[in-house]
Amino acid sequence: MKWVPEAEKAVKKVPFFVRKRVRARVEKEAIAEGKPVITLAEVQATQRRYLNNMESEMRGYQLDSCFGPSGCANRAVDSTPLIPRIQALLEEADLLGFLKQTVAGKLRFHHELRVTVADCPNACSQPQIKDIGILGACRPAVTDNDCTQCEACVDACPEDVIFWSDETGRPRIETSGCIACGKCVAACPTETIAAGQTGYRVQLGGKLGRHPRLATELPGIYDEERVIRIIQDCIVFYKANSRNGKRLAELLSTADIEAYGATGRFPDSC
Fold first, then answer.
1. From the first residue on, what is the mean pLDDT of each consecutive set of 10 residues in the chain (270 residues)?
2. 201, 135 in Cβ contact below 8 A?
3. Which residues, in sequence order, are CB contacts of 27 under 8 Å at separation 6+?
4. Which domains does the chain have, with CATH numbers?
5. What does the CA dihedral 15, 19, 22, 25 come to, rounded to 10 degrees?
């Protein structure tokens, strides 16, 4: 559908975490009214209706993901099986009912618990600024397969942490700088570098707002079952401690998250 420049400019001013919803609503309402072009008037009318009925649009959580297997050539994993499991877990937690009981006044989208999944470390879905961020990871491993010395892995590494070793006659990976994107695995024609540990990195406690904070990453790479348990633990802690819409980042310090990464336990209360 065609948008006039003024309408495009107006919708870009909508907060990014609801922009897709507002844009889709504008087009839906314009189609229902038989309007082939979106003007500023349509955007403003939809915004007024949307903001006035915001509470009816809420689910108590926001679950976002990147393009996934059909649209991203950089993915380290395919999160397609994981996302519906996360959504079912969030629905079962009845976070909307929890917010209605604990938030004074009208509910707003910024009250919702936010979870995002990215299939690769490029993190287009912005896991670093969400309550729970999940990033696909593929840790490379050097195998015993013969190496042709093509150095395709060296060229493919965005972090410049793969080097050719004359001593061993095969590549060497500086694991401390590797972000487990898997690009070297995909580039190697002989599987001299192959997929080692594959799964997800998990980050907790990110937020924007007046006091923004980047999420803190838990150590290691986790399989799907462990990711689900981490989200369950976060929900239990959140519901036990959040009042009046406080975000996870306001409830957990960096030290708390690091302690959880080491012990698997959040503080009893905050």
1. 90 76 85 88 79 70 79 83 95 95 87 93 91 96 92 94 89 93 94 95 94 95 97 97 93 95 88
2. yes
3. 1, 38
4. 1-52 (1.10.8.550), 138-198 (3.30.70.20)
5. 180
